[in-house]
């Protein structure tokens, strides 16, 4: 199964789509779906400005349909596909329809049970039906409990650029949780090292720079937390953040796979990390889901994170 959720340019007008969109934005979604309750992550100021109120409420209501899936991912897909139902036709050349751009055959796989406030019979043109169906599609393809969110998004639209774009927008739709005291101290240290050379095996000034795990160890050492030296050992010594849960500034981000975790960075909020990338580079900010990444897991150091 694949869903080609793409919006073309220069599409013809669809009276059905325009009529539906006008009705949604003019009268809102059914009363039981317009509450802002639901959703574990508070919307950022940008999200509240960019997403129409009824759609914002709907994305947040649909979040529990897939345990571990953030409403921000549903919202990001809605943004990429039709700008939250504001695309003039909501019909693609490939035959995808409605605000979440479902092929009719794919929609039928995920349309039931019809959610509260949905149309009967269910239709991909209805925002409630479409958003809940999108949550179910993602859940069936890896998003449940955050098992493999990138794979789930790729199943929505088979393109790596699409996965990166959705994740970037999702990060922009949530507020950054404040760092704890120790995490903020570690981040302050990492920020003070921006521009420092990458040196393999480096532990700081005496070595002329840091490598990735040397930086994270030194950052938390400044906060009074003694981490092991290597990325693998740091992962083993810290508490994993449940997959699908929001990251906090100061979390450690690990890349690779168990037994071969080859890189670690320090989450700085808003989808960015501070890290020492590789030989020939300097410590810098970078999107934590960079091109070609193999992100594995995040952990949260505590006072007990030592060996």
TrEMBL record:
Which intervals of the chain form a coiled coil? Answer: none
Q: Which residues cross the membrane?
A: none
Molecular function terms from GO: cysteine-type peptidase activity
Q: Which residues form the NlpC/P60 domain?
A: 180-307
Q: Which InterPro entries match?
A: Lysozyme-like_dom_sf, NLP_P60_dom, Papain-like_cys_pep_sf, PG_Endopeptidase_C40, Transglycosylase_SLT_dom_1
Q: What are the recorded Gene Ontology BP terms?
A: proteolysis
Q: Which UniProt keywords apply?
A: Hydrolase, Protease, Thiol protease
Family to which the UniProt record says this protein belongs: Belongs to the peptidase C40 family.
Quote the protein name from its UniProt record.
Answer: Hydrolase Nlp/P60
What organism is listed for this UniProt entry?
A: Streptomyces armeniacus
């Amino acid at each position: 199964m694949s869903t080609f959720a793409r919006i073309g340019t220069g599409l013809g007008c669809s009276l059905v789509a325009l009529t539906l969109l006008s009705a949604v934005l003019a009268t809102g979604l059914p009363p039981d779906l317009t509450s802002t309750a639901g959703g574990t992550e508070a919307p950022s100021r940008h999200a509240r400005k960019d997403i129409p109120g009824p759609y914002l409420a709907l994305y947040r209501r649909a979040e529990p349909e897939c345990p571990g899936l953030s409403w921000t991912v549903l919202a990001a897909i809605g943004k990429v596909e039709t700008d939250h139902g504001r695309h003039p036709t909501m019909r693609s050349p490939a035959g995808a329809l409605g605000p979440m751009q479902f092929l009719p055959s794919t929609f039928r796989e995920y349309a039931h049970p019809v959610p509260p406030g949905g149309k009967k019979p269910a239709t991909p043109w209805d925002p409630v039906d479409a958003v809940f169906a999108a949550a179910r599609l993602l859940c069936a393809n890896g998003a449940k409990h955050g098992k493999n969110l990138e794979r789930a998004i790729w199943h929505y639209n088979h393109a790596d650029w699409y996965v990166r774009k959705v994740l970037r927008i999702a990060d922009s739709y949530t507020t950054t949780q404040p760092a704890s005291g120790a995490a903020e101290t570690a981040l302050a240290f990492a920020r003070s090292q921006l521009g420092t050379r990458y040196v393999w095996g480096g532990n700081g000034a005496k070595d002329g720079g840091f490598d990735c795990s040397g930086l994270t160890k030194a950052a938390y050492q400044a906060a009074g937390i003694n981490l092991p030296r290597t990325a693998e050992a740091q992962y083993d010594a810290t508490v994993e953040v449940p997959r699908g849960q929001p990251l906090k500034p100061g979390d450690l981000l690990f890349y690779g796979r168990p037994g071969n975790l080859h890189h670690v960075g320090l989450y700085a909020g808003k989808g960015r990390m501070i890290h020492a990338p590789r030989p020939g580079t300097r410590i810098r900010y970078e999107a934590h889901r960079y091109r070609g990444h193999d992100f594995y897991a995040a952990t949260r150091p505590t006072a007990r994170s030592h060996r």
